[in-house]
Amino acid sequence: MKRRLTMIAAIGALAAGTIFAQAAATPPAAGKAPGVRALVRKRLMKNLDLTAAQKQQAKAIFQSAKQTAQPLAQQLKQDRESLTVAVQTGDSVKIQQLSQEMGTLRGKVLAIRSTAMSQFWATLTPDQQTKAQQFRDKAKQG
After folding, report:
1. pTM of the model
2. Which of 6, 23, 101, 121 would be a feasible disulfide site paired with 40, CB 3.0-4.6 Å?
């Protein structure tokens, strides 16, 4: 239990530290209200004054990341459903197995998002990188 809580805390800390990466996540499906990530990403992109070429590169980078992460996200969804059943039936072996698998999958998704963010970062000018860092620092404050 302690190990699981430590893992959850570590994932939470990583998630908080990757708000910038999450800001660049893909938008919600058509017909749905925009999520927080989409709104933050839109504000970030506006703040950076990206060129048309940079916008096109960013779109390609993040669409590719979304496609790569999609099967992992689907597996996570299935695992969450299985975990619910395991919790309700008291199957501690299955709970441990699914928890570890979900941790691995979440790590892989984080790596995909972080790699995409690294690729996007490389397309920014030094001035845009400074603005992006300021945006991230401001987001962390409040």
Report:
1. 0.69
2. 23
Half-sphere exposure of 11 (CA within 13 A, CB side): 18
89 vs 26, more confident: 89
- Residue 135 located in a structural domain: yes
Place of tokens 């691995």: 104
How many domains in the chain? Answer: 1
Q: Return the number of other C-beta atoms located less than 10 Å from residue 98's C-beta.
A: 21
User: In Å, how far from its chain's centre is CA 104?
Assistant: 14
Q: How far apart are CA 49 and CA 126, in angstroms?
A: 13
Does residue 1 fall inside a structural domain? no
Residue 21 belongs to some domain of the structure: no
Q: Which domain holds residue 134?
A: 34-141
Q: Is 119 exposed, middle or buried (0-12, 13-18, 19+ CB in 10 A)?
A: middle
| CA–CA distance, 41 with 35 (Å, rounded to integer) | 10
The pLDDT, as a whole number, for residue 23 is 38
Q: What is the pLDDT of residues 93-120, one digit of tens each?
A: 999 999 999 999 999 999 999 999 999 9
Cβ distance 72 to 105 under 8 Å? Answer: yes
